[in-house]
Structure formats: C-alpha cells, structure tokens
Amino acid sequence: MQPIKHLILLSLCLLLVNCRDSATKNTGLAINTNTKSLLLGDAFNLTIDNPKKLNITNVTYQLDGEIIANDAKLNDVTLGEKTITAVVTYDETIENLTKKIKIYNNVIPKIYSYEIVNTYPHDISSYTQGLEFYNGELYESTGQRGESKLRKVNYKTGEVLKNIDLDDAYFGEGLTIFKNKIYQLTWQAKRGFIYDVDTFEKLSTFNYGKSKEGWGICNDGNTLYKSDGTEKIWYINPENLTETKHIEVYTEKGKIPQLNELEWVNGKIYANIYQRNGVVIVNPKTGGVYGVIDFKPLRKLVTQHDKLDVLNGIAYHPERNTIFVTGKNWDKLFEVKLKEQ
After folding, report:
1. What CATH number does domain 26-104 carry, 1.10.287.3510, 2.40.30.10, 3.30.420.40, 2.60.40.1080?
2. Distance of alpha carbon 222 from alpha carbon 84, whole angstroms
3. In whole angstroms, what is the distance from residue 141 CA to residue 174 CA?
C-alpha cells in the first residue's frame, strides 16, 4: 500500500503545480507599449493589460535588466531589440511579464561623397581584412586560409616592410594597434592574436566571448571595438580581453547587418558593410548611424580580374586628416577626403 500512497501523493502534487502554472498563464496580464517600435528620444507609455480585473498592487518595469519608469524617455539607451520586463504583484502573487521592442535611431543619416586625393599601389594578391595607421606607418591584415598575413607596408610605394604568415588553419581578419600591441582577429576560430608592433613577435592569444565570429576591430585609446558579421559591435576590455557589452547599429528604418572592417575616426566608428562597398558612420554609444559613404565607384578604378572582390579596408591618417580605403585583391589604395552632400 505504501507505493500506492506515494503515487497518489505525487499525482496530487503534480496536479497542484499544473494548476498553478495554468493559473499563471491564464491571468491575461500583458505589457502594453502601444507600439512595437520607438525612436531614440521617445518616451515610453507602459501599462498593464488586466482583462480579469486582478487586484494589482505594484508594478515595476525594466529595460534589459535596468529599472525604468513607465514613462521613461529613451535618451541614454542603445538601439536595437530590447526586452521590457514587468514585475507585477497581485493577490500576494508575483508574475514576471516580458515583451520585445525595437528602438531605432532618431535621425536620417547624412550622405557623404568623396574626393580622391591620391592613388597608391596595393598588392593585388592581398585579400585585405584590416587596415590601420599607427605612428604614421600602415599595417594590414589579410585573409584566406593558407594566404593570411600580418604586414607593415610603405603605403606610398606598396613595399612590404615586415611580414609574417599565419598558420594555414587560420583565416586572418581585422586588426588594430593599441599601446604598441597589434590585435589581429581570425574569422571562425574564435581566437585573436596579440603581437609586438615593432618586432611582430606573437605575445599572446585571446578567445572571443559571446560574439559569433571575428570580422573587424578598432580602438579609441581605451576600449577595443569588435564586429562579428552581424549588426552588433562588441566592447572589449583591453585589460582582460573580455566582451563587456555590445551596441546594435541601426538607422531610423532598421538594422545594418554584416558589419566588417572598423576604424575609429574622431569619436565615431566607421564600419564597412560587407558586400555593399559602403561605409556607415556610427555613434559608439548608441549604435545610431550618423552618415553613409558610398565607395562603390572605386571598384571600377582598379584592375578588373577573376579574384577581384569587395571594398574592405579603412585607415584614418590623423596628420593628413584623410581616409585610406582599398579592397580584397585590389591593386590600388585610395586616399580620400569626405564631402557631405
């Protein structure tokens, strides 16, 4: 008889649990935002739909884990998909409600054209992934398995001043130089390399966190910023190389995916859009797009051949206040100045 009693007791317990779950799911409570999307700077109008007239005694709201007011203004937030959580108390019961919402930028991006200042030779065999000036010297990272390299280049002549080849297992991606160290990404191996900028001696490696892959990287002198081929740009702490947070790059209409090579220019991130031959100018705090540069015409100015690929490679020269751009297997490096249309 003892096993039967246990079975009956277990059945009653399961019934009670199922009843509680069912009751929770059938309260009808839901977060009402009056819209599925908002612009940066808009105010929330959060309420709780309560069709069964439950005795709600308290409601608190959170946006991605941060407590907010039901009428909070979206001034100091990042853009993209967010989760609103409401903790609702009624009849000595607490229920957590969630709802997804998207926040878009509140300005229309400016359109920039460019003036070609100079044209320099570029190694046509280089599948360019990263490009950056450091102390007046140009550094380049190239891709393709079995062909990936880290280089220091004389940008005026195209002469390779220093070169190391990556192991065939790695597909080289973006690079940046921070405090006399080169940080080079690889594509799908979830691993980056750190070198001495003068000797190219490999000092250490680091692994990625939540970011999917390695695409582009830049820095502002304090933080590293990394793209992973999506609309996300990740903040990396250079002290421990951990990803601390991310922003999502959005215009007033939607997200900008396939972000690739990155460059820090006067407080903004310039991000190449893979396969689009264009660059977006991004607010690093919110992810909002300030401007768009169409570099598509440059591709017609290089030697046309079977391996010719898309624009990739942005390097800002602070002393000359110009931007250098090239592409994968391009035989030219262009120095340009931007012009707002």
Report:
1. 2.60.40.1080
2. 31
3. 6
Q: Is the pTM of this model over 0.85?
A: yes
Domain ranges of the chain: 26-104, 110-340
Residues 288, 273: Cα–Cα separation, whole Å: 15
What pLDDT is stored for residue 20 in this prediction? Answer: 33
Sign of the CA dihedral with 335 first, then 218, 285, and 248 last: positive
Per-residue model confidence (pLDDT) at position 25: 57
* Angstrom distance (rounded) from CA 2 to CA 341: 85
pLDDT means per 10 residues, the chain with 341 residues, are 43 35 65 89 93 94 93 92 95 93 95 96 96 96 94 95 95 96 96 96 95 95 96 96 96 96 97 91 97 94 94 94 96 94 80
Q: What is the pLDDT of residue 212?
A: 86
Cα–Cα–Cα angle for 241, 244, 250, nearest 5°? 120
User: Tokens in use for 19?
Assistant: 């009843």
Question: Which whole-number Å values give the CA distances from 120 to 65, 124, 153, 190, 307, in the listed order?
Answer: 50, 12, 12, 34, 20
Alpha-carbon distances, residue 202 vs 137, 242, 317 (angstroms): 19, 19, 26
Q: Which residue blocks in the chain are alpha helix, DSSP H? A: 2-25
Provide the β-strand partners of residue 340.
112
- Where does 110-340 sit in CATH, by number? 2.130.10.10
C-alpha distance from residue 118 to each of 25, 115, 331, 335, 336 (Å): 66, 9, 14, 5, 7
- Both structure tokens of 167: 């192991």
* Burial category of 260 from C-beta neighbours within 10 Å (exposed 0-12, middle 13-18, buried 19 and up): buried
Residue of 248, 252, 2 whose CA lies nearest to 104: 252
Output the pLDDT for position 15.
36
